[in-house]
């Protein structure tokens, strides 16, 4: 079995069903990752867990040290990553508490450290990013979802925004026209950094709310938190089943 890691996002700063073996603090050439790495067993399989926003959920999306996070996981031999991400739902199938395994990304973020190939005395490198997520790992997640009593959307385009504010209704309309089905704040540069390190990376998106302007009224944190409780219960079930397959 290849070494697999889960990156937990909003609503998943720890994993209740993970039997913890040890925690390790790792310093990288890019600084410290968001949290220590937790090594443990899930359903009897070795896994590594990293909390993207820190153990106490204090690191906002634009301040996450994505390079340190990916580097740290790579440095302990991780080869596969399932990145859990809370998102807003844009297209009709992406209602609150829906799980989705996106297959494409559009990057609207800016001012983030988005590459390991940053010039200096290194040769210029352009990685292929036609298909941002590992197809193999996406298929494993979809296979793991079979037989569960909730559905998992098999595709979708994830629009990565800068945050930490939520979007305006007009921004969501534009993103919809661009082809986005989901909107989140952490999908990039995480996905491309994983690609640069040749890690198999996929996203398990959990819809926390309808995106701005997709329903009446405004978006509240209370609504997001409540929905994520159910969504993350679903994610835990899915992850327990996928580790057996990878
Ligand atoms: N927009 C961006 N990121 C999010 C949202 C949203 O509506 N909900 C959860 N993460």
Secondary structure topology:
Blueprint: E1 4-8, E2 19-24, E3 37-42, E4 45-51, H1 66-75, E5 80-89, E6 99-100, E7 104-107, H2 135-145, E8 152-153, E9 157-160, H3 169-178, E10 182-184, H4 187-196, E11 200-210, H5 221-242
Helix pairs in contact: 2-5
The structure holds hypoxanthine (HPA).
Describe the protein's architecture and organization:
It is a single chain. The protein is of the alpha/beta class. The protein has one domain: Nucleoside phosphorylase domain (Rossmann fold, 3-Layer(aba) Sandwich), CATH 3.40.50. Helices cover 26% and strands 24% of the residues. The chain has five helices and eleven strands; from the N terminus they run E-E-E-E-H-E-E-E-H-E-E-H-E-H-E-H. Strands 1, 2, 3, 4, 5, 6, 7, 8, 9, 10 and 11 form an eleven-stranded mixed sheet that branches. Helix 2 (135-145) packs across helix 5 (221-242). The longest helix has 22 residues, at 221-242. The radius of gyration is 17 Å and the shape is globular. The N and C termini lie close together (7 Å). The structure holds hypoxanthine. Hypoxanthine is lined by residues 86-88, 161, 166-167, 183-185, 208-209, 211.
């Amino acid at each position: 079995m290849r070494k697999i890691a889960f990156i937990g996002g909003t609503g998943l700063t720890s994993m209740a069903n993970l039997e913890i073996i040890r925690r390790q603090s790792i310093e990288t050439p890019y600084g410290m990752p968001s949290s220590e790495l937790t090594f443990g067993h899930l359903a009897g399989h070795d896994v590594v867990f990293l909390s993207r926003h820190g153990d106490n959920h204090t690191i906002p999306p634009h301040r996450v040290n994505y390079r340190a996070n990916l580097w740290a996981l790579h440095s302990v031999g991780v080869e596969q990553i399932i990145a859990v991400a809370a998102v807003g739902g844009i297209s009709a199938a992406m209602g609150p508490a829906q799980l989705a395994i996106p297959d494409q990304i559009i990057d609207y973020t800016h001012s983030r450290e988005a590459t390991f190939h940053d010039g200096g005395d290194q040769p210029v490198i352009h990685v292929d990013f036609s298909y941002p997520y590992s197809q193999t790992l996406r298929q494993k997640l979809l296979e793991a979802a079979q037989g569960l009593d909730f559905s998992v959307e098999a595709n979708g385009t994830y629009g990565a925004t800068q945050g930490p504010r939520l979007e305006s209704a007009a921004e969501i309309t534009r993103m919809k026209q661009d082809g986005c089905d989901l909107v989140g704040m952490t999908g990039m540069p995480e996905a491309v950094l994983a690609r640069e390190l040749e890690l198999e990376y996929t996203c398990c998106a959990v819809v926390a709310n309808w995106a701005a302007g997709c329903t009446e009224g405004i978006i509240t944190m209370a609504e997001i938190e409540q929905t994520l409780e159910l969504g993350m219960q679903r994610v835990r079930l899915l992850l327990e089943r996928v580790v057996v397959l990878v």
